[in-house]
Write a structure and sequence with these properties.
Strand content: under 5%
Shape: globular
Largest sheet: none
Order of helices and strands: HHHHHHHHHHHHHHHHHHHHHH
Number of helices: 22
Number of strands: 0
Radius of gyration: 23 Å
Helix content: 55-70%
Length: 444
């Protein structure tokens, strides 16, 4: 038994998770081995604190926590204002996810399919697959030394004639050339595009920045509402919200870099909030919005629909997903499939993930083992006591990331939100979580 005061222990755990997630910023691109180690150590830490039992309630003063939450929130508001101003002045967004979403919204306003054949909305894949397209006979119709400048021109004005010169679409159907062309569409779900499309004509790229900041706010509100609905004391909710605001990867990636991950997280935790309040229709709708924003992590939230299998939730989820996905599947099912639903199968292995440093045969073996572990964790998330769900969802998310080909910093909030919630679940009761000598990870 570790005899540490409950309040000190909870604050220390939340602080350690926040600091640990920030380490991923320092071990970034090309540091996949270190990132894998950080991921493994955090998973071991969560499994370890799952075995701790607390001797009493957490004692906190509400007013100082409220002031700290306001100060931290205002700091991110100031960042959002500065970043929005920079976007207005420069005329574009900082990184590719926001840039792609902005241009996909313009496509949609023009009546073009952002997932369809001929769409060019992924500058990273355009560059990475240039040689493959040339080998397949679908290369740019211009000298090699003009490609970069021509692409930048297209990226500024999205001119269709310039696009056709860069990516000709007059290729044989079902050919390698057509397959390569179809890989250049929008890579995320339709929800961010549908949210932005009504406003980009007026506000331009600032639309994406403003909506990302609002999405970040929505995520914090969803987390606080969920924790309050779970019965946590106001002081514990305020502490958890402060920890979420200080988990730098959440607002930094959504506000500074307009990463699309904030949308599935906001809708997913919002759905769980609705479920905790008994609002089954809203829960099903939220789950649909989560997976239709981004397949992963949105799909991991959808897994929890199977936990209670409430018919009303399932019906609303299915109906909303059909409304959001259906038009794009009817428009161009193959394009929507390869760019949104199945893109992870086509993306190349990178050294941002630890498997980028492993020989292909061993990487395959590691993925098989991690896949088996993910299935077990998914089953445990569906069958464990309610208070253990955040633990197994955090571990499941980390396992999925560990098995992936890419691990960028915008993936960190996928598991850090679950980890923070799990610590609060540990602290939310004034009694031992489990009887002595019971292993919380064991199958009941």
């Amino acid at each position: 038994m570790i005899s540490i005061a409950p309040t000190v222990r909870v604050v220390a755990c939340l602080t350690l998770i926040d600091l640990w997630s920030w380490l991923f910023r320092f071990y970034d691109l090309g540091r996949g081995l270190e990132r894998g180690i950080l991921l493994a150590v955090l998973a071991l830490f969560l499994a370890t604190i799952a075995r701790w039992r607390y001797s009493g309630p957490v004692r906190l003063a509400l007013r100082p926590l409220q002031i700290a939450v306001i100060v931290a929130g205002l700091a991110w508001v100031v960042l959002a204002v500065f970043v929005t101003h920079a976007v207005v002045v420069s005329g574009d967004l900082a990184l590719d996810q926001g840039q792609d979403t902005y241009r996909a919204a313009i496509y949609l306003r023009r009546g073009e399919n952002p997932y369809g054949k001929g769409a060019v909305l992924d500058r990273m894949t355009f560059a990475d697959h240039l040689a493959a397209r040339e080998a397949a006979g679908a290369g740019p119709k211009m000298p090699q030394d003009q490609v970069d400048a021509t692409f930048e021109q297209y990226w500024r004005d999205l001119d269709t004639q310039t696009r056709t010169r860069l990516v000709p679409t007059d290729v044989p159907p079902a050919s390698e050339a057509e397959r390569q062309i179809r890989l250049l569409g929008y890579k995320y779900g339709p929800v961010p595009v549908l949210l932005a499309a009504p406003f980009v004509g007026v506000m331009g790229p600032a639309t994406i920045e403003i909506e990302s900041a609002l999405g970040c706010l929505g995520l914090f509100v969803s987390l606080a509402g969920l924790w309050r609905a779970r019965g946590f004391a106001p002081e514990l909710c305020a502490l958890g919200l402060l920890a979420a605001l200080c988990e730098m990867q959440i607002p930094w990636n959504s506000i500074r870099f307009t990463a699309t991950d904030v949308w599935p997280l906001m809708f997913g935790f919002g759905a769980l909030w609705a479920r905790a309040l008994g609002r089954e229709r809203l829960a099903g709708l939220g789950m649909a919005l989560a997976i239709c924003s981004k397949i992963i992590p949105g799909g991991l939230f959808v897994l929890l629909l199977l936990r209670d299998r409430k018919p009303r939730e399932l019906i609303w989820f299915g109906a909303a997903a059909a409304v959001l996905w259906g038009p794009f599947l009817l428009w161009d099912a193959r394009g929507f499939g390869v760019n949104n639903l199945l893109w992870s199968l086509y993306v190349a292995q990178t050294r941002s993930a630890w498997l980028g440093f492993v020989a292909p045969a061993y990487a395959l073996l590691a993925r098989v083992l991690l896949g088996a572990g993910a299935l077990w964790l998914a089953w445990r998330a569906l069958t464990c006591p309610e208070r253990r769900v955040p633990l197994f969802m955090a571990l499941l998310t980390m396992t999925v990331i560990a098995a992936g080909k890419i691990f960028h910093n915008n993936y960190v909030p996928w598991f850090s939100c679950w980890a923070l919630w799990f610590v609060l679940e540990q602290a939310g009761a004034d009694r031992p979580l489990l009887p002595p000598n019971v292993d919380p990870l064991a199958v009941p």
